[in-house]
Design a protein that fits this description.
With 292 residues, this protein is of the alpha/beta class. It has helices spanning 17-29, 48-60, 74-82, 99-102, 123-127, 144-149, 176-181, 184-193, 202-210, 250-255, 261-268, 270-288, and strands at residues 6-13, 37-44, 64-69, 109-113, 117-119, 136-140, 167-175, 216-217, 224-225, 238-240.
């Protein structure tokens, strides 16, 4: 795989263009084989201005960008309308489930990345990881048992066994053929009919059900969940800001409440960082005044 393209997929809407930019730029900054990078961007409601920001990645680095407008996809629209709505993240969370339906026949392996991620090691190492025949590779979630079992570890026992390793789906190395054979959409539709989808944590729980005992466990440093300043001394390869405190908050950088917050700001670049701050501030006011 040394000379093969490194395919990376991200899913986002217009409210998350800046974190998507930061994730992509961090990949480029820490990857020496930049000319092998191919970003697959599954997006919704993306404005021309924010698309131009993302396009600038290909100006700064010799990478390829492939665009997939989900608003023009009957497949995604039908899927999102029929599944439970994620009010915090929007139904964009379901886009990763159909990655295999969008990418071309030249893609046999792809690395999915959430957009609340900072990469600080060569992504080629992760992309080339030996899955040893498993359809996916992922990192065990540090709070997986709490996510599936809830209060007093008694919830959803008819669905999950807390003794089974549970992975975080924010970073998933995907063998496209294995992903396709798993019939994720079919499994999701059946889970919806059975009432399971209405009880679980959206696509992450679903993927853990679909790939139960059939995934390769990757080292923790390739998905360091909810990283805090002490994690900096452990040399994490990928930081995944899953907590409520995000590195793109201006106060976060001042208080250093998450790992590499100041560095993240400069990976996003000052221009986009402050543009994103204004975007979020306007959005907050519109919601507060019930204009959106």
């Amino acid at each position: 795989m040394a000379d093969q393209p490194i395919h990376i997929a991200l899913t986002f809407d217009d409210n998350f263009w800046a974190p998507a930019y930061a994730t992509m730029r961090s990949v480029c900054l820490f990857t020496q084989s930049r000319d092998r990078l191919v970003f697959h961007l599954l997006h919704r409601t993306l404005s021309d201005k924010h698309r131009a920001d993302l396009l600038s990645i290909a100006t700064e680095f010799p990478v390829e960008l492939r665009w997939y407008d989900l608003d023009q996809s009957p497949l995604f629209s039908d899927l999102a309308q029929r599944m439970p709505e994620n009010k915090r993240l929007s139904n964009i969370v379901y886009a990763r489930l159909v990655i295999d339906r969008f990418v071309g026949p030249d893609v046999s392996r792809i690395l999915y990345l959430d957009c609340d991620i900072l990469v600080r090691d060569d992504i080629a190492t992760l992309f080339n990881w030996d899955l040893e025949g498993s359809p996916i590779g992922a990192v065990r979630d540090t709070i997986g048992a709490w996510l599936v079992a809830g209060r007093d570890a008694r919830g959803n026992r008819d669905i999950f066994d807390v003794a089974s390793p549970y992975f975080n789906a924010g970073i998933v190395l995907i063998d496209i053929e294995g992903w396709r054979q798993a019939d994720i959409v079919g499994r999701m539709e059946q889970a919806h009919v059975d009432g399971v989808m209405q009880r679980i944590y959206y696509d992450q729980d679903l993927l853990n059900l679909v790939f139960k005992d059939n995934w390769a466990q990757l080292p923790w440093r390739w998905n360091t969940i909810d990283p805090r300043p002490p994690h900096e001394g452990l040399d994490p390869a990928v930081l995944h800001y899953t907590g409520k405190t995000k590195p793109w908050s201006i106060l976060t950088g001042m208080r250093r409440s998450v790992a590499f917050a100041r560095f993240y700001r400069h990976v996003m670049t000052n221009e986009i960082f402050y543009d994103f701050a204004r975007h979020r501030w306007k959005r907050w006011w519109r919601k507060t005044l019930r204009l959106a």
